[in-house]
Write a structure and sequence with these properties.
By secondary structure, the protein is α+β, with helices and mostly antiparallel strands. The protein has 3 domains: 1-86 and 216-390, BirA Bifunctional Protein, domain 2; 90-196, no CATH class; 412-510, 3-Layer(aba) Sandwich (Rossmann fold), CATH 3.40.50. The strands form 7 sheets. It has a 7-stranded mixed beta sheet with strand order 3-9-10-16-13-12-11. It has a 5-stranded mixed beta sheet with strand order 20-19-21-22-23, sandwiched between helices. It has a 3-stranded antiparallel beta sheet with strand order 5-4-6. The structure holds adenosine-5'-triphosphate (ATP).
Length: 511
């Protein structure tokens, strides 16, 4: 665990040192759980957003995008259930004065049981080698059965208690399991209380006439209220989807995991409208499609897993998370939810407007069902950054820090480096920049020895370094040095652009 914590600390300090992420308003000591994206961070974030948008919108002829406002009519949040039910159960430790989410404390406890079971399975796998039958082992080994049963029972009881608003039982469960404050070990807990996560604000000039509004806690509702507008103006036929990326705001109780849990964050959501009764087919389709998208980036299949929900939100009839192996363990990266017709029906009821679709094949009107895919852009950023950051020991015994960001997402695609600051080499390097900058984000760097410049670009995740040397003047070739393999090749200046293009073509990555 210590190693993972070290890795997480390294990610945070690397993010700052190399211009990815700064604490918000840092000169005033920052604002809790709010962050700014810096010069490299903004590029990585933009590239992740683009990678998502292209795969969801451009590669699906029946999906279109919108960009709805952050501020919405306040009744939206009545209809969606957020005013009444967008709560987290919180609990305070009386000794440490620290505040926690009661459900997260219990889930972490249950996850430890799961890890114990996994350890037993791993041990057995080593013992039995090729003959190991995992399914049989899990079904018959007493310890594994005990751990898994206990884990399931705990999660089921928590789900029941939260569903029935029995907060006293949630507290009882924490006490029965002997869960202690993870920071101090104290078991001196307050009652469990519900806490609404929406940020309020006001619209209007004077205090008397102002309307109470909320900053949107999710982007999805901007899609639902526009369902009919988009369907009509885009002549969309069911099944079809509406995608959107944008800021969302939640007054999170516990927010101490860097950009994993922020109070202002960005979501990339897609609501897919389907015929009632066909939602499970599409739910499975989107689970598979979204996992494929993640795997296309090559961060390692072992770093992803599905977690099917026991406790369903008030709007869902099936839900699963894609969890990612962050430096602090497997946690939710994306949610795939079958939201039924809950949202459209609720908006019909509150607005008095019909939000239905006339299906020419069935010759009838109905309220579509919805399957949603919802991923946090910042969490995806953290997944990419934390997995890409690696310390390598090289053949000569020295070490290098390298960010092996998938090249399609890399903030800077190439750095152009004149070997020396004289003999006309800077001018040639500049002319290469002049031609590449139309298509790619490229940088020029002439400071320090070339080896140090390579390391600097490694640490920023730049996949290509293009070095201009004296030979360039004679034969119009440069050295391209590859970030991951550190291999160098001699390439004609006229071929550089194609080389970069081949490595960052959406077709190659997404197909
Ligand atoms: P969690 O259980 O971690 O609080 P959630 O289930 O409330 O997340 P959803 O409402 O399903 O999250 O939101 C969809 C996605 O938005 C999440 O999968 C996550 O990637 C992202 N997200 C949600 N809350 C935050 C946050 N506070 N900071 C950053 N990303 C977030």
């Amino acid at each position: 665990m210590a190693n993972n914590e070290d890795q997480f600390k390294k990610v945070i300090s690397h993010a700052k040192e190399y211009g990815f992420i700064f604490a918000s308003s840092e000169i005033y000591d920052g604002l809790s759980a709010v962050y700014d994206y810096a010069q490299n961070g903004v590029e990585l974030k933009k590239n992740i957003r683009e990678y998502w948008w292209r795969s969801m919108v451009y590669l699906h002829q029946n999906i279109v995008g919108i960009d709805a406002a952050i501020l919405m009519h306040p009744t939206t949040w009545k209809a969606s259930g957020h005013v009444d039910a967008f709560n987290d159960p919180l609990i305070d430790n009386k000794d440490s004065k620290k505040r926690y989410r009661a459900d997260v404390l219990i889930e972490d406890y249950a996850e430890k049981l799961n890890q114990k079971a996994e350890k037993e399975i791993e041990k057995a796998r080593k013992r039995f080698g090729d003959n190991f039958d995992e399914a049989q082992f899990v079904a018959t080994n007493e310890r594994v059965i005990r751990y898994k049963t206990e884990q399931r029972e705990i999660l089921e009881r928590m789900a029941r208690s939260l569903d029935s608003e029995n907060l006293a039982d949630v507290k009882a469960l924490i006490e029965e399991l002997g869960i202690a404050d993870p920071d101090t070990g104290s078991k001196n807990w307050t009652e469990v209380r519900q806490f609404n996560l929406m940020f309020g604000t006001k619209l209007g000039a004077s205090a008397e006439s102002a309307t109470d509004l909320y900053l949107r806690p999710e982007t999805a509702q901007g899609i639902f209220v526009n369902f009919l507008n988009v369907q009509k103006s885009g002549r969309m036929k069911i099944p079809f989807g509406i995608a959107q990326t944008g800021k969302a705001f939640r007054n999170e109780i516990v927010a101490r995991q860097f950009i994993f849990r922020m109070r202002e964050f960005e979501q990339m959501e897609m609501q897919f409208f389907v015929r009632p009764g066909e939602e499970m087919k599409w739910y499975e389709y989107w689970k598979e499609t979204r996992l494929k998208w993640h795997l296309s980036l090559g961060l390692g299949a072992e770093n992803y897993r599905f977690h099917d929900h026991e406790k369903l939100a008030h709007y869902a009839n099936a839900a699963s998370d894609i969890e990612f192996n962050f430096p602090f363990g497997f946690k939710e990266l994306e949610g795939i939810h079958s939201r039924t017709d809950f949202d459209l029906k609720a908006h019909e009821e509150y607005s008095g407007k019909k939000l239905q679709f006339f299906d020419p094949e069935l010759n009838k009107n109905y309220t579509p069902y919805v399957v949603e895919t919802s991923i946090g852009l910042d969490r995806m950023f953290l997944a990419v950054l934390s997995t890409s950051l690696q310390d390598e020991t090289l053949e000569d015994g020295s070490t290098r820090t390298v960010l092996k960001i998938p090249s399609i997402l890399a903030p800077v695609k190439a750095a152009v480096l004149p070997l020396v600051k004289k003999d006309g080499l800077p001018e040639i390097a500049q002319s290469i920049i002049d031609s590449l900058q139309w298509d790619y984000n490229v940088v020029y760097d002439e400071k320090d020895a070339v080896g140090r410049r390579y390391r600097r670009q490694d640490a920023a995740g730049t996949p290509f370094c293009i070095t201009v040397d004296h030979q360039t003047k004679e034969d119009q070739t440069v050295t391209i040095r590859h970030r991951d393999s550190m291999e160098q090749e001699r390439v004609a200046i006229s071929e550089i652009s194609e080389k970069i293009h081949n490595s960052i073509s959406y077709k190659a990555w997404l197909q």
